[in-house]
Amino acid sequence: MPRRPSPSIPPDLRPRLEEARLDTLALLRALDQAFVPPAHIPQPHTHRLFELDADCAQALWALDQPPGSLDLRAMLRDTLASLDKLPGARENVRARLPVHASSRVRGLETAIRSQLDPAEAYNDVTGRDPQSR
Asked: pTM of the entire structure?
């Protein structure tokens, strides 16, 4: 059976991952700063958001690995699927907030997102020193 050629990494993958992580970080910080009580935060949806964010962090790590050390096809498949799901996951969290907290969270999220340092996309990415970027 002939080997399939290795897929190439889309040139916009890293920026898309960084943007997705920063958007998620802004929402999570907004939830924290808006003092939304834990009982009012939709736990299953927030948990899903954490899972998808972890997929993005893992993909950023994978992009820094030596060529041929990972199953690139599987990484791309899983990463692109997570990137496609993330906007909906963030919206699911927002939509399930109590009305009184929703507008406060959205306002904070926008303000926080505009202030985030792009290096924060690499928070919790193994092997990346956040101070070195």
From this structure: 0.88
Task: Express each pLDDT in 110-129 by its tens digit.
Answer: 999 999 999 999 999 987 75
State which H helix or E strand residue 66 sits in. Answer: none
Which residues make Cβ contacts (< 8 Å) with residue 22, sequence separation at least 6? Answer: 113, 116, 118, 120, 121
Summarised one tens digit per residue, pLDDT across range 19-68 is: 999 999 999 999 999 988 888 888 999 999 999 999 999 999 999 888 87
Q: Which of 64, 59, 54, 74 is nearest to 124 (CA)?
A: 54
Q: How far apart are CA 50 and CA 90, in angstroms?
A: 10
d(C-alpha 92, C-alpha 83), whole Å: 15
Given a contact cutoff of 8 angstroms between Cβ atoms, the answer to whether 127 and 69 are in contact is: no
Report the C-alpha gap between 63 and 122 in whole angstroms: 12
